[in-house]
Write a structure and sequence with these properties.
Distance between the termini: 47 Å
Largest sheet: 9 strands, antiparallel
Number of helices: 8
Length: 214
């Protein structure tokens, strides 16, 4: 019993400090204009429906949804959500779950990499379709220092933190486009993400990509 009590104490994760959480401000973290992309004033919105938006706000400490447009008229929807405590049940609301809850059919879910000037980012591709709307999506989830793809990687990373007695914070980055040309959409999304990450201050990039190996 004494050993069990000691182990329980060791395995009780330490919550991330409010002071550290307060350092994250999604609204100012990502510029509204950068390298050929600018915020579209009439934001088309990235969250699927009000019910999902409410669920995200309950799960995360901060959320940000914007639509950007470039000089050629291409639009990319950006959604970022930050949570201060990602425990082993992994509260991160993955897009395939979010969109399915909004009535979308999910297909072509694939692990991939997004090559940027700051490093190679492990990410997921998938396509969400509802009626005539076809939406190719690129996303990744940061758990603590690490980027994860899919539920298994998220859970294993969170468990690993639990063994150290820490609760990691977490952040989801999602970009999507409305297009029937999926490969072209992924190319444009990579261009957008490369420009966005380059525009974010070097000391702030950790919040988006963790300890990324370049």
């Amino acid at each position: 019993m004494a050993l069990s009590g000691a182990l329980a104490k060791v395995m009780t994760p330490a919550e991330i400090s409010p002071a550290l959480q307060a350092r994250v401000n999604l609204e100012t973290l990502i510029p509204k204009e950068f390298e050929g992309w600018k915020l579209e004033s009439a934001n088309g919105g990235g969250i699927v429906n009000p019910a999902v938006r409410g669920e995200l706000e309950n799960i995360y400490n901060q959320t940000l949804s914007r639509t950007y447009i470039n000089n050629e008229g291409y639009r990319v929807m950006l959604s970022v959500a930050y949570g201060g405590a990602q425990k082993t049940d992994m509260h991160a609301h993955r897009p395939e779950v979010c969109y399915a809850a909004g009535g979308f059919d999910i297909s072509n879910k694939t692990k991939t990499f997004v090559d940027t000037t700051i490093g190679r980012i492990p990410a997921m591709h998938l396509v969400a379709r509802q009626g005539d709307r076809n939406e190719p999506i690129t996303y990744w989830i940061r758990v603590g220092d690490s980027l994860t793809r899919g539920w298994i990687e998220q859970k294993l990373t969170a468990i690993g933190y639990g063994l150290t007695g820490k609760v990691p914070d977490g952040l989801l980055v999602r970009v999507s486009s409305i297009s029937n040309d999926e490969q072209e959409s992924y190319r444009i999304q990579q261009n957008f993400l490369t420009a966005m990450l380059k525009a974010v201050r070097g000391e702030d990039r950790f919040w988006l990509v963790g300890r990324l190996n370049s």
